[in-house]
């Protein structure tokens, strides 16, 4: 069954694909400013601890369920359910994850389109097409729909090629490009005046905030969301893993890759912000808080690049190229969730299914653009703040409470006969049964 569905051909292919799914725009633009605004290295230390205390166990729940079933989330949860009512509930949870993943992609494609637009604008400036560059940088309905459509076509093009030919092959190409771009930009920015202040803010801990409940909750949320948990993306990727692979170590490599890139992004973004301040660009709000997220990416950094002349245009091109890659590696996993479900439940060809679903999601994105002022924020809030934690909670409940413990152990024993005596087995089952659900409910409560 797994071979017919498609399968990752190598360990490195899976790690690149799963890390690509986890490493998105939030890692690069959100994590660094969260750290700077919440105690610097104190937040960083708490985040690193919680990434392995929450994110890794929750990730393993999705990977183990997916590999066991070799099916989409709805079928997978049905398979491990002990009775018909919980099987029906599992099917519904899988469908909910499909819908949430599609809605996340619908707003993600809009933001990713902006990244492509700013990158193309930098390229056009280099060849002297200033008016066209200005249009790409300006907020307009036509520009937003056009760039979103370009990004969706790129995502669809990869998914139509299947698991090995599309997801795995392109992840193996895009992730090294992302890492090289990130390292190169970081090394360059660190040579600029003002960068040292950014490093100081990022790396010097304010331990008075490290014990703050608010900081802990924010670090928990950052760790949970950074791994694309709760919507079935990691479960569907897990379903494409060979039975010969050792899942606990695979999950560890994915978690480590995601965390490492988020931390590395801090060495780029925070110094870049203080370089911008050194060049006369405002980086604080009126109440003294550090600017973050969309204001940072589309206002502060472009203003910084403008102060750097022709060199700034090249840096802008490299930066938005980096951001576009980060967006694409995440979007392909989101689109794969509804595509996998539809392909497995119909006799339709993958290419046709991918285009139809991609066009539907593009239509949702267009609707958001046409009603941007109220619909954009609403979709983000409903999907990421409320739906994602609750779905992640349900995956933990199925893995920890409803799946028969012996069947779960047999899944781990497929490639590790001594799994029962491993440290992972002694800790993880009870951890995902009790600790993870409580932590996720804490994140959800804080979001309310």
UniProtKB/TrEMBL annotation:
Domain of life: Bacteria
Major location (coarse): membrane
Membrane topology: Multi-pass membrane protein
GO cellular component labels: membrane
Keyword Amino-acid biosynthesis: no
Cellular localization per UniProt: Membrane
SUPFAM superfamilies according to UniProt: SNF-like
InterPro entries found in the cross-reference section: Na/ntran_symport (IPR000175), SNS_sf (IPR037272), YocR/YhdH-like (IPR047218)
Pfam family, one: SNF
Keywords: Membrane, Transmembrane, Transmembrane helix, Transport
Protein name: Putative sodium-dependent transporter
Source organism (scientific name): Aequoribacter fuscus
Taxonomic lineage: Bacteria, Pseudomonadati, Pseudomonadota, Gammaproteobacteria, Cellvibrionales
